[in-house]
Amino acid sequence: MVRHTVPFAKRPLDVAIVIFFLVNLLFITYVVDLEQLVIPNMAHFTYPIWPPRAAVDLIHAYGRMYDHDLIARPVWWKMTIWIDNLFFGPFYVVAISAYVKGKDWIRMPSVVYASMLLTNVLIILGEEYAGQYASPDFPLVLLANLPWLVFPCVIIGRMWRTERPFTLMVRDGGAGIERTGTQATGATEASE
């Protein structure tokens, strides 16, 4: 019996998770969130080199209309942004590679990441709903943040089930595959 990494293209849930990581890495973490660190006060600022002017204008317009915490930028809010930039950004780079290559060691870092993200988003949404800078349109803000509630739950569910989420146990030279770490361990025909 040998372990066989399931090809990335045959793991559609992992493809969706990697797309989520890419959106966060390329847009949320180092454009939307970084803007809130390089422009500490929206009332008095000059446009930075990064993020681009169009992105800054879009972020500010969204903040003025719907997300007043983004405008106020209280200290607790900025701390969630620092967590995103210092910890989540590097995690995305490593996790994208690990998910694509099917590296099982990413399992527990994924659970830790997803737990932290879920905690941060729930705190932010509590503030958006009833805090000092509550959103004038909470249903829209909730809808805009829904992926950051759903994907952490998906990631935890995906990684919690088994110690080796990307591999299958192959026996008889590939004639049958037995899933490892799941409750259903019956052999199925290999489709290779």
What would you say this structure looks like, in words?
This protein is α+β, with helices and mostly antiparallel strands and 192 residues long. It has one domain (11-163). The protein is built from seven helices and four strands; from the N terminus they run E-H-H-H-H-H-H-H-E-E-E. It has helices spanning 12-38, 53-65, 68-72, 75-101, 107-130, 138-145, 147-160, and strands at residues 2-5, 167-171, 176-179, 188-189. A hairpin with an 8-residue loop joins strand 3 and strand 4. Helix 1 packs antiparallel against helix 4 (75-101) and helix 4 (75-101) runs antiparallel to helix 5 (107-130). The radius of gyration is 20 Å and the shape is elongated.
Give the structure's gist in a few sentences:
This protein has one domain. The protein is 61% helix and 8% strand. The chain has helices at 12-38, 53-65, 68-72, 75-101, 107-130, 138-145, 147-160, and strands at 2-5, 167-171, 176-179, 188-189.
Produce the secondary structure layout.
Elements: E1 2-5, H1 12-38, H2 53-65, H3 68-72, H4 75-101, H5 107-130, H6 138-145, H7 147-160, E2 167-171, E3 176-179, E4 188-189
Antiparallel strand pairs: 1-2, 2-3, 3-4
Helix pairs in contact: 1-4, 4-5, 5-6, 5-7
Report the sheet with the most strands, covering strand number, pairing sense and barrel closure.
4 strands, antiparallel
Computed Rg: 20 Å
Q: Strand-and-helix sequence, N→C?
A: EHHHHHHHEEE
The N- and C-terminal alpha carbons lie at a distance of 17 Å
The largest beta-sheet arranges its strands as: 1-2-3-4
Structural class: alpha+beta
Overall 3D form? elongated
Strand share of the residues? 5-15%
Number of domains: 1
The pLDDT mean sits at: 90
Low-pLDDT runs:
180-192
Number of helices: 7
* Topology, number of strands: 4
- The helix fraction, in percent, is 55-70%
